[in-house]
Design goal:
7-stranded parallel β-sheet, 21 helices, binds zinc ion, binds adenosine-5'-diphosphate, about 25% strand, 6-stranded parallel β-sheet, globular, alpha/beta
């Protein structure tokens, strides 16, 4: 027998190895193995097992790592699809489906020796005083770690062993699991009686899960990667759903009851949430429902803040089917749940589902693919679905489920758009707070209600400009203005972290004008000005500069919850998921800040952000109010968000995308070349463009834009050029790109990154 192995060192190919007699029957698809490679020993994953190889004189596998195969054959297939579709080497895709903590050779359970009292048979022997004392201690504790006992009793392991010899205690090797939520007590919760809209949604999801097609997954022959527009992976009539419901409409309750159905069927579930909303409260809701009763199961949690040990343990809990439910961020989509009945992607429009390094996969799209491969039902949920997903409902690729109202019958907040141009004209310059917003804040302070103020830029001032010569202080490594941070008196780059002292005069040698001024606005300045306007208000700021640790975040939110803060200022960190009944006012300082970016999704992002932020107001008994300050108050993204009109926004945005042939009417591949010499980067980009032009013969609808300097033309001292490709036949383009990237040669210091379905165009 031989095994085909994908090695961890990136080589873009697989190698055959002989399975030696002592490992016969133990090597399986997904096994982690150590193999010889030249003079080295390297790690790899078995991707196939066969009777023989076309090659002779195969070297043998040296050893198997771990008792159990770590990747299931199904997840392995998913990794292969990722490599093909996202145009990356198979070993890179494989690495991302297996967390580092699980891959490492020495990763293992934390094993400890545990001492327990054994039931005495017959007469209790007379013990020496020391031994009797030790025994008493163990008995008192019912059982304890050997190391603890030795320390507490000031004894030695040898003494405890003597008790073991006499049959009075047992010493066993037991696994002590590292549970990141060990300190929390969880109260069991019961299913809630659903309202009619929820019940209808749940019925449809359950019906799909009951379909015979959902059993056993798809046959190989039917597996086709997406090659059309949207999620065209869904050509098989396998239902995948889009649950569109405003925040507070009871989506999570529908998820919980759908998961219960999966468990009843003897299957497991994966729940993806954006990293930022993976709060203890979210996790607790899932744990609480399944902590007791006949559907009792562990809930494994996977996210980037776990220690390697915790990650290892969570992962094995899943592999051993002790945890049937997995809740986690992006990479939890690879969790080895088997059999898998249901995948939920909450806040499916979130761009954090896209991995910004190779493999550049989109977890939502991978979820759809995995569901299809394994016959699992996929539910995407959002208050503001992505255009792509909503369009898929129009094309009947997804089934749309709608929860149009909040469960508690609360009204949507009233949104008022304030024209900043008028305010700027009256006040001779744009104010931070228009009179309308100021008045609204004053009222809230008087009524002891709370306010949230939102601005999506941290720092004090967004740039430092010379009034005389127009010189702007830029980062020496990036093509970006430096942001002024007042507490440290520094200018900082938000891309590479560069910082420098604030100059006293204009740095332009020919100018040296002392009249340099700060312009633009960040959260620090909002805090500062607010303090002057309302000296008695209790104000807190929440952004990446002040929230360094998870505890900081929790502490401020707790204080806010307990009414110890009147006004909370923040960046996108406060846009989502927060539920505070006493917040009746939300002020959006500059609503159009994200609108004027060179990205076809700028309108969509602004609409989503405004809708999310506005959703923070009026979660209690009092109706909420939202003030949106904007320089372009009549922009559709702002106007449709004002009316909470998703369908209206969708219609007009779709028209815009259609005219310009952007997704969902095509798929995009973004090629970025980077290097320290601008000439070399530019030359390489032109060379690549000529190669790409040849593809037009086969791919008739291919549109090539560029090469051009990227919107972020220089980052961390690398020049960046981009070529954007658009086509409906993305998997054919991916294949062609894989060939080109393998054969084309660039100067040594120029690198090419391929991003399929990019979400970040800068
Ligand atoms: P979403 O996920 O859409 O934001 P949730 O599922 O979190 O909504 O529901 C918001 C609140 O309403 C939660 O506290 C939840 O327990 C409660 N809830 C959900 N469904 C119902 C229902 N049918 N009847 C009463 N309360 C409900
Ligand atoms: Zn920089």
């Amino acid at each position: 027998m031989i095994a085909r192995v994908s090695l961890e060192i990136a080589l873009r190919r697989e190698f055959d190895y002989a399975i030696p007699p002592e490992l016969a029957g133990k090597v399986d698809v997904g096994s982690r193995v150590q193999v010889p490679f030249g003079p080295r020993k390297v790690l790899g994953v078995v991707t196939a097992v066969a009777a023989e190889s076309s090659l002779a004189n195969l070297k043998p596998i040296l050893k198997i790592i771990g008792a159990q195969t770590l990747v299931t054959a199904k997840v392995l297939k998913l990794a292969r699809w990722i490599a093909d579709y996202y145009c990356c080497a198979p070993e890179i895709a494989l690495k991302s489906v297996l967390p580092e903590a699980v891959r490492k050779e020495d990763a293992g359970w934390q094993e400890r020796l545990f001492v327990r009292v054994l039931p005495a048979s017959g007469e209790f022997p007379k013990l020496p005083k020391r031994q009797q004392e030790v025994w008493n201690l163990v008995e008192e504790h019912r059982g304890m770690l050997l190391s603890e006992l030795v320390e507490l009793a000031e004894t030695t392991a040898a003494t405890v062993r003597k008790l073991e010899d006499k049959g009075l205690v047992s010493i066993t090797n037991e696994i002590s699991e590292r549970d990141p939520y060990a300190k929390e007590t969880i109260l069991a919760s019961q299913p809630i009686v659903l309202n009619p809209a929820q019940a209808k949604a749940l019925e449809k999801i359950k019906a799909a899960m009951d379909q015979p097609g959902a059993e056993g997954g798809m046959r190989n022959a039917e597996l086709k990667p997406p090659d059309n527009t949207g999620h065209s992976a869904l050509r098989i009539p396998n239902p995948v759903f889009l649950l569109h419901g405003v925040t507070g409409s009871g989506k999570t309750e529908v998820y919980l009851q759908a998961i219960a159905h999966a468990l009843e069927q003897g299957k497991g579930a994966i729940v993806l949430v954006p990293e930022i909303s993976l709060t203890p409260q979210t996790v607790e809701r899932f744990k609480a429902r399944f902590s007791s009763g006949k559907l009792q199961t562990l809930v494994a949690v996977l996210h980037s803040h776990l220690s390697a040990g915790e990650r290892h343990d969570e992962w094995h809990k899943i592999r051993q089917s002790r945890a049937r439910i997995v809740i986690g961020a992006r990479s939890a989509i690879f969790a080895p749940v088997e059999p898998l009945g249901l995948i939920i992607v909450d806040e499916e429009h979130e761009h954090t589902y896209k991995q910004e390094e190779s493999p550049r996969y989109h977890a939502r799209d991978v979820a759809v693919m995995r569901g299809q491969m394994e016959g699992a039902v996929v539910v995407l949920g959002s208050a503001t679905p992505s255009l792509e997903s909503f369009y898929n409902c129009h094309k009947e690729k997804f089934t749309l489920l709608e929860l149009p109202e909040r469960v508690d019958d609360q009204k949507m907040p009233r949104v008022r758009v304030v024209d900043m141009r008028q305010a700027a004209y009256k006040e001779k310059g744009p104010p931070i707070f228009t009179p309308q917003l100021k008045e609204a804040i004053t009222q809230r302070l008087e009524k002891k209600e709370q306010t949230i103020l939102f601005l999506n830029r941290r720092g004090y001032s967004s740039s430092l400009v010379c009034e005389k010569c127009g010189h702007v202080c830029e980062c020496p490594n990036c093509s970006l203005a430096l942001t002024y941070h007042r507490p440290e008196q520094l200018l900082r780059c938000h891309i590479c972290g560069w910082n420098e002292q604030v100059p006293k005069v204009c740095p332009n040698e020919k100018c040296k004008n002392p009249g340099i001024r700060y312009s633009g606005l960040g959260t620090q300045k909002v805090e500062d000005v607010l303090g002057k306007l309302f000296p008695h208000a209790r104000v807190k700021r929440m952004d990446a500069d002040v929230m360094r640790k998870k505890e900081d975040y929790r502490r401020v939110l707790d204080a806010f919850k307990h009414g110890e803060i009147d006004i909370l200022i923040g960046t996108q960190m406060i846009a989502k998921g927060l539920h505070f009944p006493n917040v009746t006012l939300v002020g959006i300082i500059y609503a159009d800040m994200a609108l004027h970016q060179p990205d076809f999704r700028a309108g969509e992002r602004t609409f989503q952000l405004l809708t999310q932020v506005a959703g923070r107001a009026g979660r209690g008994d009092i109706e909420g109010e939202v003030f949106v300050q904007a320089f372009t108050p009549f922009h559709p993204a702002i106007q449709y968000a004002r009316r909470h009109d998703f369908n209206g926004f969708f219609e007009q945005e779709l028209e815009f995308r259609k005219q310009l042939n952007y997704p969902p009417f095509s798929r995009v591949a973004l090629l970025t070349l980077k290097g320290r010499s601008e000439d070399k980067v530019k030359f390489s980009a032109e060379h690549l463009k000529r190669e790409l032009d040849k593809l037009k013969i086969e791919l008739k609808d291919l549109i090539i834009s560029g090469p051009a300097a990227a919107p972020l033309a220089r980052a961390e001292s690398f020049y960046r050029y981009q070529i954007m490709l658009r086509t409906r036949a993305m998997s054919r383009l991916s294949q062609a790109l894989a060939k080109i990237t393998e054969t084309i040669s660039f100067p040594d210091d120029v690198t090419l990154a391929v991003d399929i379905d990019p979400v970040n165009l800068s």
